[in-house]
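Supplementary Methods S3. Complex input for the CU-O-CU linkage-bound model.
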Amino acid sequence: IALLIGAAAVWFATNAVRATPPAAGALRFENPVAVPPLAESHVEDGVRVFALTAREGRTSFVPQGDTPTLGYDGSYLGPTLVAARGEQVRVDVTNDLPDTTTVHWHGMHLPAAMDGGPHTPIAAGALWQPTWTVDQPAATLWYHPHLHGRTREQVDAGLAGMFLVRDDEEAALALPRDYGIDDFPLIVQDRSFNADGSFAGGLGMQFDGVLGDTILVNGTAAPYLDVTTGKVRLRLLNGSSARMYDFTFADGREFDLIGTDGGLLEAPVAATDIPLSPGERAEIVVSLAPGERIALRSAAPDPALHAGSAEFDVLELRAAASLAASPDVPAHLADVPAPDAANAVTERTFVMSGHNINDTQMDLGRADVVATVDTSEVWTVRNDNPLPHSFHVHDMQYRILSIDGSPPPARLAGYKDTIALEGDREYRLLVRFDDYADPTTPYMYHCHLLWHEDQGMMGQFLVVEPGQQPALTRPEGDTD
Ligand code: C2O
Ligand code: CU
Ligand code: CU
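Predicted complex, serialized as structure tokens:
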């Protein structure tokens, strides 16, 4: 046994990737940040049809050499899909990888069979055509693989992209919304590189996964963004597999937080920082003066868990000498009714500890929760660990009722699908199972630190009609 423990310790030590980005101020911003192209689509019998192809490629990030990567359509990341509330969409996903994958629509309300979790593998060479009607408020969602046990590997290699939902209410507001002009997606990831340019940390990691020393934004290292308008809207996605960020500007300037995972907040929240754990999104609007350069940075929110906790640079905003005027951010953004737990039919507790939830590991053949369609439940979630964890639920946007008995701060009071769990705190969530009953295919809830998820820190819930018997099936080929 001692030998085994020794071997494991060596394995972790030699494979550990736990690096720190250079301290703020040290980075030279040399590369214009890539803006993911908008995905093309066409309308076929009233259905908006997109096509995505997952494939292998090589991408140039660092001078020491090209990096073998995966991407949708291109060599790294994927195009941004845009659809309007009320539209029926279909995505023709072709898997050109030599390997099975899945595509999960993170944050989307949709039938479980279309959700792209581990129950809907796409074999190498196969085509998958999920279709659903977009029915949720305007929001910044994203997509990524969700293959059981291998999500981190495929996401870290480059498979991820944005999915923007539009709606009439958001479109009527005086907010920046010209994609690539005054409205930018920023997919923030950390990576480390081997001497030959390949990604480091492919095989093994520390207990919480890869922490890299190079920050990529939309796949660009040392990035800057040219700004031509007085205000710019940044749709921040923490697309990293383990690193938590606390986004802030170098001069501590205030910005407006206008939206979170599932859409706009009731009113803008004036903030100087916004923490995001892996999978979370925030939409912010920041003002710039003509000609100025200002760095978006991150402080590591938990120094104990993120080696070398100094503030580090993410991206520089470079304002043109003259800027087109932008209107003031509206004082009211959206109607976000207060969460009401009065009609919740059940309460459940989820204790996150080690790589387990309630002392159990993910089993594709077990329904951990069976919920009834069109009901709400209260889920109490606790992180019992010194490890960082988070809590993501598929299919829905939930609401935080309380944190340790107190109402959540304004930045967490809107629609959320992923939250960071601070140690020893109790988060009461109002979850709602709208619309789609299916006794055979489950949705997932899990820690969104991808290595934890891969290790089994995940559970499954079925949504059934009242009185319907669950009949969960294992995905083909699963032998757990
Ligand atoms: Cu972003 Cu279950 O995933
Ligand atoms: Cu998800
Ligand atoms: Cu975790």
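The two ends are 25 Å apart (CA to CA). Residues 389, 447, 449, 452, 457 surround copper (II) ion (ligand 3) (CB under 6 Å).
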